[in-house]
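step 3/5: co-fold with zinc ion
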Amino acid sequence: MLIQCRACGKPIPKRRGGYQYCDDECRQRSTQNSRQVIHRVLTRRRMLFEFAAIPWVGPSNLLGSVPTTKAQLHEYAWKEVQRLDGLILKKGLDDPSARKSIRNGAAALRKLFEDKGIRTGEDAMLVARTHELLRDAGVEGEPSRPDITSIRRHADAAVALYAEIRDYRNLGKALIASANTCRLDEDDRTADRMFRAGYHILNERCSRTDPGIARLLHQVSFWKLRLSAQNLDRCEIRKQLNDLSNLACELGEPSVHLETYREEVGCLTHELRDYDKAAERLVEMKELLRGMSFQPSYPAPTLLRPEIELLIKTGEKDAAIHLIENDYATLYRNNRHLHYYRVLQSWIRKYGLSIQVPSPAYASPILIYLPR
Ligand SMILES: [Zn+2]
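step 4/5: write tokens
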């Protein structure tokens, strides 16, 4: 059976596994960006592993009876990682008891591997997963500087470990999450770089025929567009929006279409100033949302924000303020995430609003759940 070389399109015989190129030159050319990313990540690795080795003091009795053989240890750790991941999905990060359980469980797992050391790829994978859990569970209350630094370090450690074991799917995903950690830290410059790095890895090292990869490529593409849109010309923005929409159609999943509409409304409002088209997309987004059997509550405020911003741009400030003071504020009170607090505060300051909102309950880099 013949397939096409991924770089030049020349027909070549299909081989098992990995990517298919006709020669080394094609391979080199096509993987240049991702090779640079991996090189950069691994150069920083030493520093990260020094951090990973800081002894952790905590409730060690959480582990109860821990198995002693390597195989039993891995089995135990995988089960625990899945249980904690399940808490994010089933209870949601907006549940304080879920955040606490995830933090304690992941910290205990990390301690276990620190005592035994990271020796195999599977060890590295499990430690990376615990860093991801600690990153996503975030911190309680309004974060201090060291709090944010610790979330960023967990994010970086996961990136370094996945790079080390050449797990490109997870590396791409961890780079996206790491970029979101930078956004939480209001460091958009590094976030932009991280999103690009994630894009290169997913695009050059993974196959987009895998729906999981296509979903991640969709996410990283809209983030990349969001952070760079102000520097792009209208033509390029339309092209990228078009690509996003095509990718969403390929996937055919309601949640992906929802995100696409949201990004379209945002871009059409702010960069393209095509308010009619933005309003059209907004109607489509709301229709889709109404028809969905499962209404995602966690990212709900992100779906409301484009509507508020469109109303403001089209001179309907009163309607916008009504949405801010009622709908958005209510969603925030039910999920007091730092990011939504900041958005709300910026509106309160800008429009001199008098509503009172409680301070944030927690900060996490995750606003959209990334499937594991
Ligand atoms: Zn070729």
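step 5/5: annotate
Confidence is low (pLDDT under 50) at residues 50-63.
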